[in-house]
Amino acid sequence: MLDPRVFQRVRKNPVAMLSAAFLAFMVLCCVVGPLFLPSVLGEPGPSQYAPPSWEHPFGTDLNGRDLLYRVLTGGRISLLVGLCGAVVSLFIGTAWGLIAGYAGGRTDAVMMRFVDILYSVPRLIFILIAINAFNAGLQEWANREGLAWLVESSRIAILILTLGFIEWLTMARIVRGQVLSLKERQFVTAARALGQSHVKILTRHLLPNLAGIILVYLTLTIPAVIIDESFLSFLGLGIQAPQASWGSLLADGAGAINPIRSFWWLLVFPAASMALTLLALNFLGDALRDAFDSKAR
Predict the structure, then answer these.
(1) Is residue 278 part of a domain?
(2) CA-CA distances (angstroms) from residue 86 to 17, 81, 159, 171, 289?
(3) Residue 177 belongs to a domain with what CATH number?
(4) Are 251 and 234 in contact (CB under 8 A)?
(5) What is the CA radius of gyration of the chain?
(6) Do the Cβ atoms of 80 and 94 come closer than 8 Å?
(7) Domain interval for residue 210
């Protein structure tokens, strides 16, 4: 189980607490902020490429939409994809590493060779193939069933599952290495001597001792998933209009920059929002890792 002293050490880390406060503020703004802003701000308006002002603090885009509103709604999707994708990878990687490390022998060898094979496949190619295959199949089925509205709402779910399925490999290796060490401890030997089943040993004895490393990995996986989603959306392969994410907003901002006139706010504000969020997540993950480090106890 999680040691309360770990969180005491985290609370004594000013960088960690500042990062946690910023993350809480950013999540609150992205989730609740758009509810207090007029929805008309997200619709096309007459003020195209308006610079930042009191009326539009982040300026407007090509279609006259308020950029602050779009950064908040885009952050909501980016954070959702990052968190859910990290949770998917967490469950897959933890289960895979637990089984491989506990079983050992030939089972461990086969399972980890499968992980090695997946590592050898270029991630970008795998993502592109998976997203295109899922989207094509979903669109064909939705059109056949008269459920075209389902396509847009399901793109996010497909993106979450696809990114989650490629981020679990490192977690599987980490968990497997920890299990190989833990299963030789006396408490596991005692549990076996008492006749406890393998499932109980995995869930009641091994998994609680992995809670710390799983929590640290979760905080470090969320930024990786957000970056993957932003990269795909930047290429036009992730979140599609009219929905927006930080990646698609960066793509719009990059397309608006030209030698004649630079609409800098279209690139600066989405990039700053994403960069500060990723930086805070990494700082928090590093602080948790140091707090769980046995040498710090």
Answers:
(1) yes
(2) 22, 8, 12, 10, 17
(3) 1.10.3720.10
(4) yes
(5) 23
(6) no
(7) 77-296
Q: Looking at the DSSP assignment, which residues form a beta bridge with residue 60?
A: 66
Whether 168 maps to a domain, the answer reads yes
How far apart CA 104 and CA 102 sit, in angstroms, is 6
pLDDT tens figures, 79-118: 999 999 999 999 999 999 999 998 888 998 999 999 988 8
User: Is residue 260 exposed (0-12), middle (13-18) or buried (19+ Cβ within 10 Å)?
Assistant: exposed
Work out how many domains the chain is built from and give that number: 1
* Listed residue (234, 274, 230, 252) closest to 63, CA to CA: 252
Domain assignment present for residue 112? The answer is yes
SS3 readout for 33-73: HHHHCCHHHHCCCCCCCCCCCCCCCCCECCCCCEHHHHHHH
Q: Give tens-digit pLDDT for 152-201.
A: 667 788 888 888 888 888 889 988 988 888 888 888 888 888 888 888 88
Q: Which tokens is 228 given?
A: 């993957």
